[in-house]
Predict the 3D structure of the following.
Amino acid sequence: MKQLGFFDVEERLARLSGLGDQLEAFSRTVDFEVFRPDLDKALAYSDGSKGGRPPFDPVLMFKILVIQTLNNLSDERTEYLINDRLSFMRFLGLGLSDRVPDAKTVWLFRERLIQAGAIERLFDRFDATLRNAGYLPMSGQILDATLVAAPKQRNTNTEKADLRAGRIPEDWQDKPSKLSHKDRHARWTLKFTKAKRQDDGTIPSTDLAIPFFGYKSHVSIDRKFRLIRKWKTTDAAASDGARLREGLLDKTNTASTVWADTAYRSKANEDFMDKEGFVSKVHRKKPHLKPMPRHIQRSNAGKSVIRSCVEHVFADQKSQTGLFVRTVGITRATTRIGLANIVYNMRRFIFLERISTTA
């Protein structure tokens, strides 16, 4: 085996750059220092006067969470790959001889952010960065939601009834270790999908209903730049439409138009949007037991051309970052989904900056 030379690492990093290192684009475009004030406030580390090993730099730890989110990694896998990959080390500013945070340290850092409820502030901080860069919410907004899977729970019918009622099942109350592994907030729901064409060419008249367990990610993106501006996390069984009135609309958008599918069409939502000064472009529902009028079909088709842009956001999160909730409880799920939304906006920001420089 050839002995490691002095310039071998630099040559390998240069080759990684030539192959298109995604993390290098992150370092070049995103100023991670903007997160430091919110991270320092959330972590509230001591000044070190009592001694002990100093904590890792909070911005470095936050960048580790970005790596995790980009690659859908567990804490243990993250520790291994940081030690293994030069691209990860360069992104974090670590050398071969530097100490790397272990899996427990990564977990503790994320838990402190969760306990401080910092993910919303971190999202807003980067949204302010986007606005300062000229990417204001423009041309209206589009709302939608997607299901996010979580580890399935095997509970009895009695336990399920207790959880739906907001109670802790009696058998769990004196078993803290079991309780810590039970997700009391995720819910089962049915995921409907279009039936596939059969071998004989026919298509079944009914769609497929697939049981699904987990959470739901609700987002509002601006039509101009397709950046996530508002978001919310609920259990998978929560109604999409009711979230519209729970802070999901962005009043700072330069246009008042709102696009959404039929799940958001209700008298309460229409009255709310009218009162708040929004113009509804929400799809209209098919009349019960009656054919859809032709003019409504045409109207919905025109709205779909615009509304479908939000599907690209979810497709990016699930195909590129493998969005999945590994943890237990809605508080941790909110942090996981919030990180996915921040990372999506970072990737979108990098794309927008690249096309603006080449235009």
In short: The first strand starts at residue 141 and ends at 149. The CA atoms of residues 147 and 216 lie 4 Å apart.
